[in-house]
Amino acid sequence: MTPADPTSPLSQPGDAPASAALLERARAVTPGGVNSPVRAFRAVGGTPRFMASGRGPWLTDVDGREYVDLVCSWGPMILGHAHPAVLEAVRDAAGRGFSFGTPSENEVLLAEEIVDRVGPVDRVRLVSSGTEATMSAIRLARGFTGRSLVVKFAGHYHGHVDSLLVSAGSGLATFALPDSAGVPAEMAAETIVVPYNDVPALEAVFAARGGEIACVITEAAAGNMGVVPPQPGFTQALRRVTAEHGALLVSDEVMTGFRVGRAGWWGHEGVDVAPDLMTFGKVMGGGFPAAAFGGRADVMALLAPDGPVYQAGTLSGNPVATAAGLATLRACDDALYARLGEVARAIADAASAALSDAGVPHRVQWAGSMFSVFFREGEVRTYDDARAQDAAAFGRFFHAMLDAGVYLPPSAFESWFVSGAHDDAAVERVVAALPAAARAAASGS
Ligand SMILES: *Cc1c(COP(=O)(O)O)cnc(C)c1O
């Protein structure tokens, strides 16, 4: 790796010579030079920053530039980078060995913590990624119901599971076409995509095919098209319609779980809707690969070795990852959630004021302390609404913020994330950068 030289003068904003050099080398050995596509900056252009280190709310790139981090690893770093308690737990666990391929105590402790926090979860199985969690939950729902169709909502992301990597045409419910090459049409045809927040469309799909539907999977509050919470009554409608037809309700809380509150969107929105299965990831791994799916005891009982639905993982419940996750969740108390809310509110209010002053149409939406700024006016309820925004204006805004030392998600379709480590200095850096970035957003229109 090219070592950062903080004394080397950076000639102009936007320059990132060490990142550019690493990207070139990376491209020679890795497709696109990145290990997850959104890191490549394709939506905003420019050179993706290779980060060298992180501490609290700050990231330092290989050119020695510092940024306030509003991505937080896409959610997991809820305590900030290299949090002392998590670091100590990781060091301690790693000192005892990295992986045993046997059961170990931390797995029990983490599972107990999840079951304790999330009412509808009686039993939980640990896996290594959110993708694995949703894939396994769907297999389990199919095994339990003996049905094969899955209903998902347009604009919801559940990881890169073949049958879930589909988006909808607009308007009425449609059978999905694959969103990615390499997904067989037969597999995509097992998925029905319905517009989000549209109860009549959901009811119509169930009226036509209800007896064949294994489950509805939903982002508890959508965060992967920007933040679009369920409309009042929508989650209740999901519960009612699935129950009427003997289908399971799978609530994907990989992003919202342990971030929008002690449990997640469940418990934040209200505790009257209990999904049959839930999925978790991101925060519960504390920055390490740990994720989970869980739910009703009678459904989870079908999993191997007790039941016929197979699911496994060499590194599942890894002792270092579970130590990080446990230390993270133990630090996620009411004070932490209150702090996240304050920081998010301060940043969102300042962003909104700056964009208003610059005359940039925008809309801020919330799910707990998760928020995103849509570059359009009016409420965003569906994927079509989310897509109708000025992505070019966001691109100009993004780069102005980056040049001023603020690392935003490099896409207009993402939540902004804060951490408990975002102190006044970090918030001030963001607030100071906003007016010029808002003017840059306005400048191209
Ligand atoms: C991030 C995410 C996933 C996928 O998790 P990975 O760990 O990236 O596989 C699934 N569902 C939701 C809602 C997510 O936000």
Automatic annotation (TrEMBL):
EC number: 5.4.3.8
Keyword Heme: no
Residues bearing PTM N6-(pyridoxal phosphate)lysine: K282
Catalytic activity of the protein: (S)-4-amino-5-oxopentanoate = 5-aminolevulinate
Cofactor: pyridoxal 5'-phosphate
Compartments (UniProt record): Cytoplasm
Chief location category: cytoplasm
UniProt keyword annotation of Cytoplasm present: yes
Pathway as given in its UniProt record: Porphyrin-containing compound metabolism; protoporphyrin-IX biosynthesis; 5-aminolevulinate from L-glutamyl-tRNA(Glu): step 2/2
Highest taxon of source: Bacteria
Alphabetically ordered keywords of this record: Cytoplasm, Isomerase, Porphyrin biosynthesis, Pyridoxal phosphate
EC top class, as a word: isomerase
PROSITE patterns: AA_TRANSFER_CLASS_3 (PS00600)
Gene3D superfamilies, per the entry: Aspartate Aminotransferase, domain 1 (3.90.1150.10), Type I PLP-dependent aspartate aminotransferase-like (Major domain) (3.40.640.10)
Alphabetized NCBIfam families for the sequence: hemL, PRK00062.1
Subunit structure and binding partners: Homodimer.
Family statement drawn from the similarity comment of this UniProt entry: Belongs to the class-III pyridoxal-phosphate-dependent aminotransferase family. HemL subfamily.
Protein name from the UniProt record: Glutamate-1-semialdehyde 2,1-aminomutase
Lineage, highest ranks first: Bacteria, Bacillati, Actinomycetota, Actinomycetes, Micrococcales
